[in-house]
Structure formats: C-alpha cells, structure tokens
Design goal:
129 residues; 6 strands; homotrimer; 3 helices; alpha/beta; Macrophage Migration Inhibitory Factor; four-stranded mixed beta sheet
Chain lengths: 129, 129, 129
C-alpha cells in the first residue's frame, strides 16, 4: 500500500528508470514486508533547476542523480521507517549507482478508509486487505 | 477544498483530459456536497513505465487508462470517502470509458488552518468558508 | 525541512522559475525561521487545462500565473502558517509579479521520524537536527 512518488532530474533512459523503480520496490518489500504486488510508484522527471535539494546545513553533497522520495502509507513504526531509509539507500546504490547522499525521503501517514486500490472498494475497510 | 491530483499515462488529448477532469469534479460535488466552484485539480502525465500500479495480489487488471488519484482534504467520514470512491468510478466510466479497475485512490487529511485559497488568507480560519 | 511542491502552468523561462523558487524560499525562511539551506523544492509545469484552480465561490480571479503550493512540514502553529501564506504572497508579488489572488496553498503535517535528508539517516531522530 505505500504509494511512492519519486522526483528526479531528467536524463535517465527508460531502462534506467525501470531499474531504479525496481530497486525502490525491493527496498519497500524488504523494509516493510508487504506483499510482492503491493507496488504503486510514480516517477516525476524535471528539468534541472526545477528540483532543488539542499541540506539544512548538514553538509550533504548532492549531484544530478538526487531523488526526492515521498511515501504515503498507513501508520508504520519508527523502526520500520528507519529500515526503509536504509534499504532505499542500499538498493538504489547497488542497482543504479545512486549515493545515499542523493536520497531524501519524506513520509506521510493516512488511515484504513483512505485507500481504494480499484473497483471503488476500500479494501482495508471491507477486509479484503 | 479537496485538492485532487491525478497521475496518468500520457496519450489523452486536451479534450479528453478536460472530460476526465470535469467527471472527477462531478464525483467530488456529488460525493462530498461541496460548492460548485470548490475545484482544485492537477493532472500529471507520465511516459509509460513511469507510472506503475499493481494490485497487492487483489487480482485487479490494469490498462493504460489507469489513474492514481490522490486527494487532500479536511477530515471526512468513512461514509463520504466510500461514496467518493464509488462516484469517481461511476463518473469516469460514463464520461471517459475508464473502468473501475483502473482507478486507485489515496486520501490525505489536514486541518482548517492548512488552506489558503488566495490573497494570503486562511479562509477556514477567518470564517469566510 | 518543509518540502515545497509548486504546480504551475508552463511558460516561465528557466530564469523566471529560478526567481520564483528563490522568492518562495525567502518566504519560508522569514515565516518559519528555518536554516538558510533548509530548502527542498519541486516545480511542476503543466499544459494549460491540466491545472484547474477555481475559488469555492470566494470571488477570487485567477490568471495563467496561478500557483498551487503544497507544503509538507512537521507541526507548525496556526500563527506560523498564516505568516507563511502572507510571506509567500509578498515575495512572489515583488519578485515575479504574481498576485496574491493567484496563490493557493495547502499544508500537510508529518512527524520527526518521517524525514531523511540523506545518507539513510532520520536526522530528527538521531538528533543531528
């Protein structure tokens, strides 16, 4: 159920985007232990200059590979969130050569009736999920 | 006040997008009983492969017409949320031939001071709304 | 830490977008008193017709310069939110000639463990922020 929105600077090939999204999904699977097909991803490309990611003075260097990953999910423990950050960095580095310093994540939480995966049904309410 | 963000695969004509957005707005009007001009919509087009919508194992078939609809709103009852899912499916099928199986919705909730509709004013705080 | 997403109709030059984003950041700095480099911005361009901003009957006139600004932040007081609306209008008018009537804002709130600014670290949890 997490919905993953990834904002990036344009320039990746179609195949590179596929590799990146596959990696992000593996991170979700291993960190949150959701079902294999619990995959909902949107990849937004932007011209350089339309995506600005600084560092709040933390001294983190960004490159053109930088990603802003926003996650919408039902409530997750702090432990699972930390694991997700860690798994995203690991998978995206291995698969796509994206450094952990180029990965920013922000999570938003909603509740069971807030999801319909299709057919007009609220699957967490009807008990199908 | 709901803000409706719709992510879709590119390919619809300008007129088809208008028809789709008009239909989504009719669904909001009838499900949530908001004023006629309470319409705030963003339509994002993506190349195929940049929008991935699977099914958490529910057995829902997706096509290239698939939509991810994210709604930001003040608190709504579960009943109204279910009605919104149902109305979105009905209106989008009738107007645009989009099957209910191609419609995913996720809702996020915020509060009165979180909205300014213009002029730097928080209209739910000042009492104008 | 606020993450600022700005949806706009296409047509601004690269330089105009830079001016606009710089102005939005000055508004965040002065309204919320965050560090200088606490800057995370995404600018989305859309064809006309893909961004629809009406007025809930408030009688607010929109032009092609209209902006939908969505802000994700840790909790902020109502006072700070109102100040942010006001500062956004002031800075965007001065820098970019965008009228206050063309500026809609919606804020979403999350919590400390929901942010990783890089390196897989949750900076509000580890105490670095």
């Amino acid at each position: 159920m997490p919905l993953i929105r990834i904002d990036a600077i344009e320039g990746r090939t179609k195949e590179e985007v596929k590799t990146l999204l596959d990696a992000a999904h593996r991170a979700v699977l291993s960190a949150l232990a959701v079902p294999q097909r619990d995959r909902y991803q949107v990849y937004h490309e932007h011209p350089e200059g339309h995506l600005i990611v600084e560092d709040t003075g933390l001294g983190i260097q960004r490159t053109k590979k930088v990603l802003v990953i926003t996650v919408t999910s039902m409530p997750r423990s702090q432990e699972l969130k930390l694991r997700l950050y860690s798994e995203l960095c690991r998978e995206l580095k291995t698969s796509s050569g994206i450094e952990a310093s180029d990965i920013m994540v922000s999570i938003m939480t909603n509740s069971a009736p807030d999801w319909s995966f299709g057919n007009g049904e609220a699957h967490f309410v009807t008990g199908k999920l």
